[in-house]
Amino acid sequence: MTHQSTFMGFLGGYREQGRSCLLISGSNYSVLIDAGIKKTYSGGRYGEVPYLNLADPQRLDAVLVTHLHEDHFAMVPYLIKKGFTGPVYMTEETLELGVRYWRKWAKIFESDGRKLFSEDDVEEAIKHVRPIRFGDIVEVGDFVAKFKISGHAPGSAYLEVRAGERNILYLADIAKGTNVFKDPEPPEETTYDVIILNASYGDRVIGRDATEKAISEEITDIVKRGGTALLPITAMGRGQETLAVLMKYRSALGNAPILVEDTVLTGFNALTKYTSTVRVNVLENLLDNLRRDEHVVVFKREELRDIPLSGAVILVSDLMLMGFSREVFMKIKDDPKSAVIITGYQAPGTFGRALMKAGDTGIFKFGDQIISFKCSVKVLPIKTHFDLAENVSLLTRLRAWGSAKLVLHHGEEPNTFRLAHALTRYTNVENIVMPSVPSFMYLV
Ligand SMILES: [Zn+2]
Ligand SMILES: [Zn+2]
Fold it and tell me: Read out DSSP for 53-89?
């Protein structure tokens, strides 16, 4: 048998968080895994795209998408526009819940003049999708991939890949112990040549119980002193996760009103359908508790001006404060009793990132505006990725130390470096790869 080499192209999502995109090719296959967007704002533009043209869309055989989040999913229609004609594999949930993001980006690219893809390209892309189930195998020449439950989002997967003679584990976004999603399936305990790890949290160990307790204590303090606790979240996943935490500690909050934007409830109903990845019982119980709680108020955006905010918790589905969360922030910002609780990733250039950096200085610049504030800003992550301890325990179980190349993915540079440093306690530094974007690696 001739020795084949496997090519890996890192087209986005390395030493940065967002626009995940990996090309794997060999003598008879060329496959793209994820094609996301980076939700940064710079120079008046929203969204940075991966180096998709380096993948040569016309020569690609297949695209595999791990989950519906925009940083993995958003740019598929661009490939279609550029002449990709093959199948796009993803779970049914990913397509159903994600397709609105394709439409959203078609509008953004239309209005900013970039015209990277249109609504017609979106319709065309939908036709290329081959829905798959967990455990299904995708085969393209000498490339074989298996979709496994990753515990991070509805229908989310990680991938076990056999590329020519090489075993690659692409962990994508993976999480354990969330309130909403079922835990990930264990990967096959084989010898991996390459493991692509998630570096979102760098070298941090985030105890879930401790963080949940810290969030609830913080919020209890805020509402007891008559302030407003603003929690920017996402409507699908983080919103439900946050509500699960609040309801767990409901008694500490007393009768404080919990104001929930209606899209979070719509998200609930959508999620309960997805029995393969969602803890449906937990969600249904949570929904029951919310319905029975007379201090839970579900509101539409236009109704908010009539609702008193003091002493309340408010959940708004705009994680990075670029829209409605920012409007709510403007209402509460000069009240020293109030606080914004940052629960998730804030991309560079977003209002949330600027606010987070301003911390307790009380002033920052955003675009041409000077924003002053008296409320406090707390960063308390609701965990949706593996932390250092979980990464280490998985690698130990797979006996990966010394045998696998560990590629660090999905973390901004400081977090990527911190994770690399932490991993040198277990493996030689030559086994840790921190690709820049774009770059490539041959496995020979
Ligand atoms: Zn994700
Ligand atoms: Zn991601």
Answer: GGG-GGG--EEE---SSHHHHTTHHHHHHTT--S-EE
Distance of alpha carbon 140 from alpha carbon 23, whole angstroms:
14
Tell me which ligand sits closest to the C-alpha of residue 68: 1
**Closest to 39 in 3D by CA, of 117, 119, 140, 108:** 108
**Cα(354) to centroid(ligand 2), Å:** 21
- 78 alpha carbon – ligand 1 mean position (Å): 20
Q: What is the pLDDT of residues 59-79, one digit of tens each?
A: 999 999 999 999 999 999 999
% of the chain with per-residue pLDDT over 70: 99
Domain holding 118, by residue range, is 6-204+384-443
Same domain, residue pair 74 and 24: yes
**Ligand found nearest the CA of 151:** 1
What's the CA-to-centroid distance between 37 and ligand 1, angstroms?
12
Q: Is residue 33 part of a domain?
A: yes
Q: How far is the CA of 24 from the centre of ligand 2 (A)?
A: 19
- Indicate if 326 and 231 belong to the same structural domain: yes
Predicted TM-score (pTM) of this structure: 0.94
281-307 residue pLDDT tens:
999 999 999 999 999 999 999 999 889
Report the separation in Å between the CA atom of 18 and the middle of ligand 2, taken as the mean of its atom positions.
Answer: 6
Residue 170 identity: Y
* 347 within a domain of the structure (yes/no): yes
* 265 has pLDDT over 90: no
Q: Are residues 69 and 193 in the same domain?
A: yes
Q: pLDDT class for 1, splitting at 50, 70, 90? A: very low
Identify the pLDDT of residue 3. Answer: 58
Residue 214 domain flag:
yes
Tokens of 37: 């967007």
Q: Give the distance (Å) from ligand 1 centre to CA of residue 385.
A: 8
CA of 172 to the centre of ligand 2 (A): 7
Query: What is the domain count for the chain?
Result: 2
Residues 6+ apart with CB under 8 A from 302: none
Q: How far is the CA of 152 from the centre of ligand 1 (A)?
A: 7
Residues 55 and 167 in one domain: yes
